[in-house]
Amino acid sequence: MALELVVITKIVPDGSEVFIDPVNLTLNRSLATNVINPADENALELALQVKARYGGRITVLSMTPPFAIPYLEECVGRGADRAILLSDKAVAGSDTYPTSLAIAAAIKHIGKVDIVFAGEKTSDSSTGHVGPGVAEFLDAELASYVSSVEYDDGYVIATREFEEGTEVVRIPTPAVVTVLTNSNNPRKASLRRKIDAIRQGVIVWDLKEVGLPPDAVGLRNSPTIVKRMIPFPRRDRKGEKITTDNIAKLVDVFEQNKLIKGGE
Ligand SMILES: Cc1cc2nc3c(=O)[nH]c(=O)nc-3n(C[C@H](O)[C@H](O)[C@H](O)COP(=O)(O)OP(=O)(O)OC[C@H]3O[C@@H](n4cnc5c(N)ncnc54)[C@H](O)[C@@H]3O)c2cc1C
Q1: Whose Cα sits closest to atom 14 in ligand 1?
Q2: Can you give the pTM of this predicted structure?
Q3: What's the pLDDT band for 117 if we cut at 50, 70, 90?
Q4: What is the DSSP string of 19-31?
């Protein structure tokens, strides 16, 4: 039977363009352009490789406002079969607990799912909670820090990478795998597939569609309280252009700071 594969993805602001608002002490993302969360690109690529090897259907799922639609079309352009956007005003203010709950509800609404692929973490909030949280709400097995996946008759064989080494686990489906950033080379969408993806469109669900009441999500059902944020003090850096005329000065600085050793 064809595998039912789901890739969950968050659209994040490009990290280099996010700064802390000095007055409100909140993250100001308003000037940032958005990107598919980097680890989720690896999760999608891994799902595409699993599909190429074992067959199946890939659904990309994101819980976010509709601005994310072009990014979901990009995922379909790369080879996913369809994209679902879970979008509802009631999820505003949700921390990772109701976020995981709502994503799991959408996955249950898809029906029988064999493997859910998530990124190991996002590049903005970076908690790494959502993959494991979704596994918990789905009552599914979890393999984290995964670099590759094989499928064998109702089991996922996942390779997990650590600083100390590598571990291969065999877990039954339904399974959630959280995929390591940079663990593969994500493909790009072809122009033809991108045009097809735009024509195909994105399926939009709200909370009612996935059977969740509004009071199950949002700030009210979020146990995290952000008490305060402390920005790093600004460091004033001074630069000096080094040319052949003043290179001796640079050598002095290196020697004074023990960055080079004479004669070596
Ligand atoms: C008190 C509080 C209030 C918040 N209010 C808001 C708010 O109003 N609006 C807002 O946008 N955020 C809000 N957030 C942030 C929001 O909770 C996180 O963006 C979200 O839970 C994901 O957490 P993360 O980025 O750490 O994901 P991680 O757990 O690091 O993500 C791991 C993986 O899970 C998947 N994933 C994560 N998020 C999603 C998603 N939304 N859809 C699909 N897949 C996903 C991706 O595969 C990702 O790689 C709030 C957080 C807190 C603590």
Answers
A1: 95
A2: 0.88
A3: very high
A4: EE-TTT-SEE-TT
